[in-house]
Amino acid sequence: PECQVWTGTLLLGTCLLYCARVSMPVCAASMSQDFGWNKKEAGVVLSSFFWGYCLTQVVGGHLGDRIGGEKVILLSASAWGFITVATPLLAHLGSAHLAFMTFSRILTGLLQGVYFPALTSLLSQKVRESERAFTYSTVGAGSQFGTLVTGAVGSLLLDWYGWPSVFYFSGGLTLLWVGYVYRCLLNERASGLWEQVHPPLDGFQVDLPPPSDLILALGILAQGLPVSRHTKVPWRQLFRKPSVWAAIISQLSAACSFFILLSWLPTFFKETFPSSKGWIFNVVPWLVAIPASLLSGLLSDHLINQGYRTITVRKFMQVMGLGLSSVFALCLGHTSSFCNSVVFASASIGLQTFNHSGISVNIQDLAPSCAGFLFGVANTAGALAGVVGVCLGGYLIETTGSWTSVFNLVAAISSLGLCTFLVFGKAQRVDLSPAHEDL
């Protein structure tokens, strides 16, 4: 029961992470009209999230490996929820709207950058190999669910109350989630840890008031409890392995392709089909992606349990997640039908969720003892590529006047990652000195 509660809670946390993350893409077109941004300036704001996002990946993974991913996630969510709520205020502080919004997105990226590495560390420590794909894909489905929620509710709020309401909605829900996790799931556990370090005096019991609860949690975080793993990372051993570099390059490609589509698809539909309803193109692709993510996890674990080699299953998932998804992305640039565009976008986004059961889990196969750190390195590379990719997408649209070039870029990046992983990818552990049998 505790495992189910935590899986559901982390699913909701991932959902709210993306609610906050995609608030800017959903509002980008309206904010550009209000502030007079062109495509290049909008691209700077959209990509600035990844400038911060790439800086805290490794830190988040290492902290997750050392002190527990749940603590890292809780503290970062508190901060990014507050920043999201405050974003409309920052936008109206002065006339430098572009600078303030860029700063806000960089700060949000810094705070959200620790989430997935800490999550990977948490799951690699708590979940068996035969169940990792389904657990990770279930929790990872929150990214599509969060995008769906902001796409649906955010589009309505955008039409009814203006773009600031979207930020209030996503940031406020995050802060409510933080309060629930702390008070209902971590409070009893935190109190037990505190008593282990500071036993109460005989016959003396103190009921801490709510403000002291947060101080107590921060105190435990500072103590670094519990440290249940070796904190030394075998840097040289990891980065000598081609399979590690294949994982990093594949994660880079998957993240960059996803970030480009996530950032520019709302603007693509808004400009290509101006009479279309936002709640359709901001909802349908992500509605398809949720069952696709769950299906990929179930299929992956089923194939492994049926006796297929782990690396064969991981590569098959990447063929779907990077290969087939890029074919549908290419189709987006060669259709003038709104219905076909929604179908192609839905297929591309849905198939990209197979990456959760491919490369994301492969990192846990390679180095479960330091999976948070290694995922942080890989996701840093993906975030850096996201900065370049999203900016380059805005530049290509502005200079060519065509959206086809953006979707060609997505296909090229995906193909690079897929080919690298198919050639060099393995599922053999590389974080231990003794040789292990290739899975």
Set down the secondary structure blueprint.
Blueprint: H1 2-21, H2 23-35, H3 39-53, H4 57-67, H5 69-91, H6 97-112, H7 115-126, H8 129-161, H9 164-197, H10 210-223, H11 235-239, H12 242-272, H13 278-281, H14 284-305, H15 310-332, H16 338-352, H17 359-366, H18 371-400, H19 404-424
Helix pairs in contact: 1-8, 1-9, 2-3, 2-8, 2-12, 3-6, 3-18, 4-5, 4-7, 4-18, 5-6, 5-7, 5-9, 7-18, 8-9, 8-14, 9-10, 12-16, 12-17, 12-18, 12-19, 14-15, 14-16, 15-16, 15-19, 17-18
Please give a structural write-up.
The protein has helices spanning 2-21, 23-35, 39-53, 57-67, 69-91, 97-112, 115-126, 129-161, 164-197, 210-223, 235-239, 242-272, 278-281, 284-305, 310-332, 338-352, 359-366, 371-400, 404-424. The protein contains 19 helices and no strands. The chain has two domains: 1-196, Growth Hormone, Chain: A (Up-down Bundle), CATH 1.20.1250.20; 234-438, MFS general substrate transporter like domains (Growth Hormone, Chain: A), CATH 1.20.1250. Mean pLDDT is 79; it is low at 189-230 and 434-439. The longest helix has 34 residues, at 164-197. It is globular and about 55 Å long. It is an all-alpha fold and 439 residues long.
